[in-house]
Amino acid sequence: MSSRVDMRWKQDFPIPSQEDSYVTRREFTKFLGLTSLAFFLGTFTAAARKLWKRAAGTPAAVPVAHVDEIPVGAYKLFRYPTENDPCILLRLEQEQFAAFSQNCTHLACPVHFNAATRQLVCPCHKGFFSAQNGRPLSGPPRRGLAAVAISIRRNQVWVELSHEERA
Amino acid sequence: MSPRVRLRYRISVVLHMVMAFVIMILLAQLWLFTVTLEAMETGEASTNVVIAALVCSLVACAAVWALIRLFLQAEEQQ
């Protein structure tokens, strides 16, 4: 009795159970098409954010420190252009200042200034950057720190986005 | 080999070529996505590069869907 029921069931559904999990060609092509669409939407989102940032305009230059406030070999932390963008201002020589984004280009840990070696150090994964130009020296980071343009006006250090950041 | 089997074999070869082409397009789209992402994060790439990447990605997406359509039509005819 039972085997006769089995036979009828197999006639109605003549697909072996192990073939249930097979992906058909149609399903696979659909997956490829949706993957392509996902890549396009990702590209669109990234491009839109970039263009939106550009359309928002360049933030105005702001004073972040008095020249006498930072001795040679010292640094000051500030946030620019928004409260979510930590930056570091360095005084390398009497007349030489430099400012960079404090986010490491590896995994965005905050970098610290080592005055003895004149390097910016990321303590998370031992990334080292030049304090002169922000270029990566060793460790996991491959890209340099984003530079912030500096000007001295009326004995104050003013910062604004560099040309690279504005583009 | 009967003519029908030969035809099926030929179509199968063409379909494999189409699939390889689609996968190449997808890899190119992935690269375009990384270029745009890099531009968004660092601001090093110019706006023209970003727009070009976006247009190329759209064209690639349309090409993938067109190829898939051809692929499925060929399969139905087979």
Walk me through what this model shows:
The complex is a heterodimer of chains A (167) and B (78). Chain A is α+β, with helices and mostly antiparallel strands. Chain A has two domains: 2-55; 62-166, Rieske Iron-sulfur Protein (3-layer Sandwich), CATH 2.102.10. Helices cover 28% and strands 29% of the residues of chain A. Chain A has a six-stranded antiparallel sheet with strand order 1-10-9-4-3-2. A four-stranded antiparallel sheet of chain A has the order 5-6-7-8, with no helix packed on it. Chain A is elongated. Chain A starts with a helix and ends with a helix. The relative contact order of chain A is 0.13. The mean pLDDT of chain A is 86. Chain B has helices spanning 3-42, 47-77. Helix content of chain B is 91%, strand content 0%. Chain B has 78 residues and is an all-alpha fold. Chain B contains two helices and no strands. Chains A and B meet through α2 and α3 of A and α1 and α2 of B.
Task: Give a quick rundown of the structure.
The complex is a heterodimer of chains A (167) and B (78). Chain A has 167 residues and is α+β, with helices and mostly antiparallel strands. Chain A is built from 3 helices and 10 strands.
Descriptors:
heterodimer; A: 167 residues; Rieske Iron-sulfur Protein; 2 domains; 6-stranded antiparallel beta sheet; 4-stranded antiparallel beta sheet; 3 helices; elongated; B: mainly alpha; 91% helix; rod-shaped
Low-confidence stretches of chain B: none
Largest sheet of chain B: none
Order of strands side by side in the largest beta sheet of chain A? 1-10-9-4-3-2
Q: How helical, in percent, are the residues of chain B?
A: over 70%
> What Rg of chain A, in angstroms, do the CA atoms define?
29 Å
Helix fraction bin of chain A: 25-40%
SSE topology:
The complex is a heterodimer of chains A (167) and B (78).
Chain A: H1 2-12, H2 25-55, E1 62-66, E2 75-79, E3 86-91, E4 97-101, E5 112-114, E6 119-122, E7 127-130, E8 136-138, E9 147-153, E10 156-161, H3 163-166
Antiparallel strand pairs in A: 1-10, 2-3, 3-4, 4-9, 5-6, 6-7, 7-8, 9-10
Chain B: H1 3-42, H2 47-77
Helix pairs in contact in B: 1-2
